[in-house]
Amino acid sequence: EVQLVESGGGLVKPGGSLRLSCAASGFTFSSYNMNWVRQAPGKGLEWVSFISSSSSYIYYADSVKGRFTISRDNAKNSLYLQMNSLGAEDTALYYCARDSSDYYQPNPPDYWGQGTLVTVSS
Amino acid sequence: SSELAQDPAVSVALGQTVRITCQGDSLRRYYATWYQQKPGQAPVCVIYGKNNRPSGIPDRFSGSNSGSTASLTITGAQAEDEADYFCNSRDTSGNHLVFGGGTKLTVL
Hints:
The complex is a heterodimer of chains A (122) and B (108).
Chain A: E1 3-7, E2 10-12, E3 18-25, E4 34-39, E5 45-51, E6 58-60, E7 68-73, E8 78-83, E9 92-99, E10 109-112, E11 116-120
Parallel strand pairs in A: 2-11
Antiparallel strand pairs in A: 1-3, 3-8, 4-5, 4-9, 5-6, 7-8, 9-10, 9-11
Chain B: E1 9-12, E2 18-23, E3 33-37, E4 44-47, E5 61-66, E6 69-74, E7 83-90, E8 97-99, E9 103-107
Parallel strand pairs in B: 1-9
Antiparallel strand pairs in B: 2-6, 3-4, 3-7, 5-6, 7-8, 7-9
């Protein structure tokens, strides 16, 4: 069974930083591309970032480019999102989501974690 | 990047058929994937590709595409289908994913 478990969310002050983690199990993590998707409270879904299986291809949404960094450790079956210069607009539930394709560009995810909540407030 | 537009809310009588649409330039090139999201839960894929259902998704869910519009049809809507539905595809650059704003489906 595919499982994606996010952690690392919490309350952070504007301008602060946070690192999210996603522990993957039930599939060969190193063979799959991965995404981060977020959802502000009561709002829709917003794609954040994509990383290919070997970390060769990385893409970001314009709203986070230059502030967020996606990475992975295939030996640890883990995906990460380093978030810097956080603002109120980054408050959201952050989902780790497995990409549905092995193509070098992002594809709609097929499996999602339950999310970790990031709240940016003073 | 491009956007995907969805109607914010749609309602359907129990047992009737409802169509939820998603419009965007990128849909001329890429298929939409449809997700169902119930309160407090993660999104679940109900349709992907041309018209494919993941294992466990009832066959009352179907998808179609025409030009810049993708549609999700529920034939014989059930009470448990009441949820938010989001469409998703690559944007016109191909290097980003974009989601529709979501459609809240109410089953009357």
